[in-house]
C-alpha cells in the first residue's frame, strides 16, 4: 500500500513489489538526479519496465513529481483506491486462495518467460503448465469446475 511520499528509495522498493495499491495521498519522485546521484536500489531496471525509460528520465532530470492519479496512469500502481489497506488485504486473501504452484509460476516463471526469446518462452510456458496442471490440487479444482462446484470468475 502506497501512502504519502513514494520517493527515491521508496519508489525503488515499491517497484519491486508484485502488486501496488496507491491511496490518494501517494506521490512519486526520483530526486536523485537533482542531488547529483543516480538510483542504486534497482530502479534503473524496475521503474522503466513500469513507466518507460523516457518517463523515468524526465522524473530524474527535472525533479517532476507525479501525484497518485498521474502515477497510476503511468503504471506505478495497479490500483488507486481510497482505503488501500482494506483493498490490499482483500487482494492478499484472493491470492492466498490460489494454488501455491500457480502462484509460484506467476511470480517466478512468468517474468522470465516474458523476457525470454519466443522459442524459449513457449517451452518454459509448456513446462510450467505441465507442472501446474499435474498437481493433485489442480486436478481437484478442474473437477470442481467441470461439476459446476467452482465459484464463478470475477466473484
Account of the 3D structure:
This protein is mainly α. The chain folds into two domains: about 5-95, 2-enoyl-CoA Hydratase, Chain A, domain 1, CATH 3.90.226; about 100-145, Lyase 2-enoyl-coa Hydratase, Chain  A, domain 2 (Orthogonal Bundle). It is about 55% helix and about 10% strand. The chain has helices spanning about 10-15, 45-50, 55-60, 70-75, 85-95, 100-115, 120-135, 135-145; strands spanning about 5, 20, 25-30, 65, 80. The two termini are about 25 Å apart.
**Helix content range of the residues, please?**
55-70%
CATH-scheme architecture of the largest domain: Alpha-Beta Complex
| Beta strand count | 5
Name the beta content range: 5-15%
Radius of gyration: 19 Å
What is the fold-level CATH name, i.e. the topology of the largest domain? 2-enoyl-CoA Hydratase, Chain A, domain 1
CATH C-level category of the largest domain: Alpha Beta
Low-confidence stretches: none
Q: Looking at the structure, what is the overall shape?
A: flat
Largest sheet: 3 strands, mixed
Q: Roughly what is the average pLDDT, rounded to an integer?
A: 94
Q: Decide which structural class fits the backbone.
A: mainly alpha
How far apart lie the N and C ends? 23 Å
List the strand order in the largest sheet: 1-3-4
**What is the helix/strand order?**
EHEEHHEHEHHHH
Count, helices = 8
- The quaternary organization reads as single chain
Assigned CATH superfamily of the largest domain? 2-enoyl-CoA Hydratase, Chain A, domain 1
The number of distinct structural domains comes to 2
